[in-house]
Amino acid sequence: MLYTHATVVTVDTSRRIITDGAIRVVGDIIDDIGKTDILKGKYAADEECRLSGRIIIPGLISTHMHTAQTLLRGTADDLELVSWLCERIWVLQGNFTAEDGYAAARLSIGEMLKSGTTCFLESMFADRYGFDGLCRAVEESGIRGCLGKIVMDIAKYAKDAAWVMHPGLVENRETSLLGTLKMWEKWNGAADDRIRVWFGARTPGGVSDALYKEMTAISKDRDIPITMHCAEVKADRDFFASVSHTPMSYCKSVGLLSDSTVLVHMVHLDDSDIELLSSSGTHVAHCPTSNAKLASGICRVPDLQNAGVNIGLGTDGAPCNNTCDLLQEMKLAAIIHKGISQDPTAVPAENVLEMATINGAKALGLDKQIGSLEIGKKADFVAIDVRGIHTQPWFNPVSAVVYTATGRDVDVVVVNGKVVVQNGALMTMDEEEIVQEAQRRSKEVVERAGLGKKVQARWPVE
């Protein structure tokens, strides 16, 4: 198949941009890439998909996502993190069934695919949500999923005993750590290697030192990557201080710092923490919308970049972002640091596109397969329609993608060589059925949790 007449932003090592460009896909691999006239001359017998007026970029990679939470979109707005967790989200999630988890995963994946995300890192999927269902949703949809199953043995947040988890979410070593190993043995490498199983450790304070050390030892022995929330809010800093550590000195003490670890949020860091991140090769997932909406703070992205830390981008969950659209996340990631630093050159659009593509692939250990458009890599790419009045005119395609486009402009999505979105419509999933199921199940979860009155509109509804 030839995809022709597009502006192709390769994000390859030279960062070249090809006008009137084309991509040849054979099976699941990019077989050739270059000017349309040259490729059409070489492969005249190939079927052609004309994409004039589109910008093709590598498939977007979300390095932080809670698939279960998409079923809870809008149920906990305008709350700070601990209240958000303890009074709303944990209560709602503690009333999930495995069927709810499957419905939420399908809703999340459908939204991600339609807005250009071709690979995601699920951060902390609880046992009660039904991990098999999550894997099945990834398998059926055609997306790539790095799926973190929760690891925990302490049922509270940070150091305050009052911040306790809902009983329905409490797990121990057997269900969490050993359960993850069972799922790794069953699912890792499944669906044409689109599924990878990760450890999804809870935030420090939710995992004992002994369990962290056991997990990190297994991680190194079996090459199972780890993702974990860290230093998101001031309460996290208080926890680290209570055990005589900074965030990264604590992570180092239990073996978490490595190039197989993605640490999420990373807002409240010292200079020494940044040095440890840099020297260890540990990756960071930046989630600016979540951090801003929950008033958690803002990650020190320019300082991390200057130190050579690899930074990916994530939307986080729908209750703290309200969308899984990574294109919208890219715009805020490019803008927010300019406002804080009062430097308009801080974190330019090109850096942000790298975060959402090749940096994300590196964080997931997949940069030899995805993250850029190069011969021999997997055929994962997105065509964004920039013919509309709201996207015209444009001069720099990277600027058009980062500052102007949203997920609603995504026209075609290819994952592993297969078209999963065409003309903006899902090809592997029934969108109407997914939405109806999500609507029904979200209401049932809210009612089981007894939060019907708390999640409704604050203003009078007639």
Structure keywords:
globular; TIM Barrel; eight-stranded parallel sheet; Urease, subunit C, domain 1; alpha/beta; nine-stranded mixed sheet; metal-binding; Metal-dep_hydrolase_composite; 2 domains; 462 residues; 38% helix; 16 helices
Q: Can you give a write-up of this model?
A:
It is a single chain. The protein is an alpha/beta fold. It has helices at residues 36-42, 81-93, 98-114, 131-141, 174-187, 190-193, 209-222, 234-242, 247-253, 271-280, 288-293, 301-306, 326-341, 349-363, 397-404, 431-449; strands at 2-9, 17-26, 29-35, 48-50, 54-58, 60-65, 117-125, 144-151, 156-157, 160-164, 195-201, 226-230, 261-265, 283-286, 311-313, 381-385, 410-415, 418-422, 425-426. Helix 10 (271-280) links the parallel strand 13 (261-265) and strand 14 (283-286).
Question: How are the SSEs placed, and which strands pair?
Answer:
Layout (H helix, E strand, L loop, with lengths): L1 E8 L7 E10 L2 E7 H7 L5 E3 L3 E5 L1 E6 L15 H13 L4 H17 L2 E9 L5 H11 L2 E8 L4 E2 L2 E5 L9 H14 L2 H4 L1 E7 L7 H14 L3 E5 L3 H9 L4 H7 L7 E5 L5 H10 L2 E4 L1 H6 L7 H6 L4 E3 L12 H16 L7 H15 L17 E5 L11 H8 L5 E6 L2 E5 L2 E2 L4 H19 L13
Parallel strand pairs: 1-4, 1-5, 6-7, 7-8, 8-11, 11-12, 12-13, 13-14, 14-15
Antiparallel strand pairs: 1-2, 2-3, 5-16, 9-10, 16-17, 17-18, 18-19
Helix pairs in contact: 3-4, 3-16, 9-10, 13-14, 13-15, 14-15
